[in-house]
Every structure is written in C-alpha cells, then in structure tokens.
Amino acid sequence: MHWGLDVIELEDVGYNYGGGALFSNLSVQLAPGSFYFLTGPSGAGKTTLLKLCYGALTPTTGRVRAFNMDVRGLDRDQMAYLRRRIGVVHQDCRFLDHLPVVENIALPLTVSGRGLQNEQGNLQELMTWVGLSERRDALPPELSGGERQRAALARAVILSPDVIIADEPTGNVDWEMSQRLLRLLVELNHMGKTILVATHDMSLIRAAKNQVQARVLRISNRQLQLAGADL
Amino acid sequence: MSAFRKLIVGDAQADRVVPPSGFTAQLTLFAAGAMAFLCVFALALSLASGRVAHRWSEELARAATLRINAPAEQRAAQTEAALEILRQTPGVASARALSSDEQAALLAPWFGADVPLDTLPVPQLIEVTEADIGYDATGLRLRLQAEVPGAVLDDHTRWRRPLVDAAIALRRLGVVSIVLIGGAMAAMITLAANAALAANAQVIEVLRLVGAQDSYIAQAFVRRFTLRALSGAAVGMVLGMIGVWLMPEASQEGGFLTGLGFQGWGWLLPLVIPLVSALVAFVATTRAARKRLGDLA
C-alpha cells in the first residue's frame, strides 16, 4: 500500500464493539476531490467507520491516516487541528442550543480564534448558500429538520475543510430537502472537496448519478466492498 | 502572559460558548462572598492578636516591681537601701517608690477608695523600669536577698508569658483559619466547576467536534469561575470591612475585645482577599477542567 497520496487512508482497520468484531481488515483510500457514499444495513458500522475517519474513535487493529498523519499518534491539540480540516455533519446535527444559528455556524471560526469581524461577509454568503439567511437569529430548537441539516453543513464547511463527512444527512428530511442537500454536497465536491456520505437511502445515491462521479462503499458481513462501478 | 491577558480581557464570543449555568454560578458567588467575609474577620483577629502580643510583650518586658515586705519601722530604711541598689544596677533605667496615694489607688478596686493604708500591713512597692540593655535579674535578686531581706523582685515573667503565648496562639489560629477558609473555598469551587463541566458534557463534545482545543474549552470555564469568585469575594470583603469598621474602637476599658479591628495600613490588607480568591478559583477550576476534559477523552 502507498501512503501519502490520499486525504484519508484506512489500512486493515478492525473495530471491536460489545465483545465482538464490528468489522475487520477494512482498507480504503479517499483521494483528494473524490465523492464516496458509504452504505450498508443498520448496525453494520457506518457511523463507526466515519468516526474512525475523523479520529473520534481509535481502531482496535490497523491504522487510520489523515493528511499523512497516523491518527492514533495525535495529541489533543493535533486532533483539534485535524477536526478543522475535516468538516463533519452528524445525523443529529449537535448544536449549542443556547446560541442562535449564525453563532452555531460560526463556531469553528470562534474556537479557532478567528474573529467574526472580518468574516461577516463570508458568513452571510454561506448562510445565503444554504438558504438560512432569514433564520440567522433563530435558536436551533426552532429549526426544522432540513434547516438543521443545512445549518450543520454550513458549520462543517465554514473553515473550508479538505474533507466533508456527513452521517445520514438526509435521514430526517423529505425528498425535496434531501435533493437540496445533495446539490450542496455536489457543489462542494466540484470545489475540490473530498466528500464521504453515509446513507442507507439508495434513491439519494441514484439521484447523485447525473450530478457527480461518485463511488459507493458498502459495509456488509464485517467487510467493506466497492459496490459496482462509478455511478 | 498572553493567557493572563486572555483571562482578564476575555473574548465576547468565547464567553458565550458555555451556556449560563444557574446554581453553580450562585454557589460560586455565595461561597466566595461568605468566605471573603469570614476571611476579613480572621484577618482582623490575627492582626489584632499580633498587635496585642507585641504590645504586652514590649510593655511588660520593660517593667518590674520590687516589693518590700518589712516591719513598719524598717520599711523606709529597706526601701531606701533597695533604691540605692537599683540605682547602682546596670540595665535599670529608673526606680521609683510608689507613694501612699498610688498604692491606695491600686488597692481601690478591691477595698474601696478610702482604704486606710497606714493601718494595714501593705508592702512598699517600687516600680522598676528596664533600660534597653536589660538587667541581670538573677544577680539583682541575690544582691537584694543579701542586703534587703524583705525585698521580692517580680519581673512579671510568671504571668506575662502565658498572656503573650495566648495572644500568639490566637494570631496563629487566625492564620490557620484563613488557610482553612481558602481551602474550603477551593473545595467548593472545585465542586461547582465539576458540576458545571459535567452538566456541559454535550457542549464540550460539540466544541471538540468543531476543532476546539482543550485549552480553549477549559479557559471558557476557568474565566467564568475566576470572575465569579473575584466579584463574590469583593462583595464579601466590603461587607466584612463594614462589619469590622462598625465594631467599637479600641479602649483601655474595653481591653482586648475592643481592639479587634484594622489599624493604619492594615485596612488595605483585606483588598488582597478578592485577588487571592480569584487565584484560588483559577487554580481550582483549571485543575478540575483539566481532569474532567482528560476523563472525557
């Protein structure tokens, strides 16, 4: 295996959970600018695999490398910097409910010490891009499912990360909203971002066919398979 | 230095990241205020005890009493002989026989103002004032024993030492109380900080998710608790100082109890209490945050 050409690389990764192996010997490389869907049955380990990719979990066996760094060897500060290069959209979004949407979206800027004064233009542009410019002062509990997902996506991309990982981003939204989210992800991919989307929604994958050259990874029977040719 | 500046100046955005917490904020304010209030009194007690110990020690150490127990017909001669010996003794600054009126005044609290001193077998008292170099009490006693058989030298050591010891012990007690108050405040703030950190585990998770370093997260909590302790202690200190100020002024009649206040520059000393409280809160919260964030890995 060659190291260093891909943004995220998993080599013979295994992960034990609840006394047994959730999966073992998984190997995959995400090339810069690629678009991947990760699919598989519920409980197969999609979310776990995503967490391994952004360092929230450590593999039981094997190695995970992000931007040529072994994730296992990173200290807390290095991990924080890694998180700034990987934007994550959770299924449940995870906001700070006491802050308005605009401040939640700007949170990566705040914690990285970049003042919001110079970023107001970019922030407004981003909110318009995800269609939330009218909802900037709303609190997260006041948002609909689709608005929450778009806000989470905006927060994930505000630092212009190299990789965007989304865990079931369309799980709680209707078809129209899922298409809207897909279009945003495709746009980001066209900007050169590496995209990894976990989903069990095959219609979303089929809808992506005409918009982007994406690959589908499938976790099944504790193994990871490339599910057919490019869509 | 930049960390200190960040702590003082703060960051409006960063301050908003941690949600305002209810009972931990009130607990910290109350604990810091109450402890600062108590600390002012402990400090006043400690300083007053120190002053008293010093004064008693100084005043009593420089004075002694010579008592002439002799039959009435020999008393004047022995008194004169004793005064002569005292005049010749190196280290004795002055010696003076108390007059009948002065002796009557000393007995007045027990026998009344009209005590007939002439009819009572009252010894003659001689007040001895010590010079800076001091005198040899043992040598003086031996000489008095040989030349003035009825003379007894009392240099006050017997009852001076327990008084001074008591005052010193009281001052030590005040200092120990201040240390204990600081420890109790540190414990309470640690508990409050731990409760706040535990209640905000989700917030910490989100902050880490978006790339916050642990030092950033810790500082958000540390700054909040430090400023709360500072403001709470400032209020407690002011109330404590008002309480001390309202106490009766020191007077001869009131004795030790009326001297329990601050004097001169001593009034400035309580100003240190809020700063020390903030420092205690800073250290306690930093330790708590570091541990909690480590546990949440």
From TrEMBL, chain A:
One of its GO terms (cellular component) is plasma membrane. Transmembrane segments: none annotated. GO terms for molecular function: ATP binding; ATP hydrolysis activity; transmembrane transporter activity. GO terms for biological process: cell division. The keyword DNA repair does not apply. Residues 8-231 form the ABC transporter domain. Pfam families: ABC_tran. Keywords: ATP-binding, Cell cycle, Cell division, Nucleotide-binding. PROSITE patterns: ABC_TRANSPORTER_1, ABC_TRANSPORTER_2. SMART domains: AAA. InterPro entries: AAA+_ATPase, ABC_transporter-like_ATP-bd, ABC_transporter-like_CS, ABC_transpr_LolD-like, P-loop_NTPase. This is Cell division ATP-binding protein FtsE. It comes from Tritonibacter horizontis.
Automatic annotation (TrEMBL), chain B:
It is a multi-pass membrane protein. InterPro entries: ABC3_permease_C, FtsX. The chain crosses the membrane at residues 27-48, 168-189, 195-213, 225-247, 267-284. Keywords: Cell cycle, Cell division, Cell membrane, Membrane, Transmembrane, Transmembrane helix. Residues 178-291 form the ABC3 transporter permease C-terminal domain. PANTHER family: CELL DIVISION PROTEIN FTSX (PTHR47755:SF1). GO terms for cellular component: cell division site; plasma membrane. It is found in: Cell membrane. GO terms for biological process: cell division. This is Cell division ABC transporter subunit FtsX. The keyword Repressor does not apply.
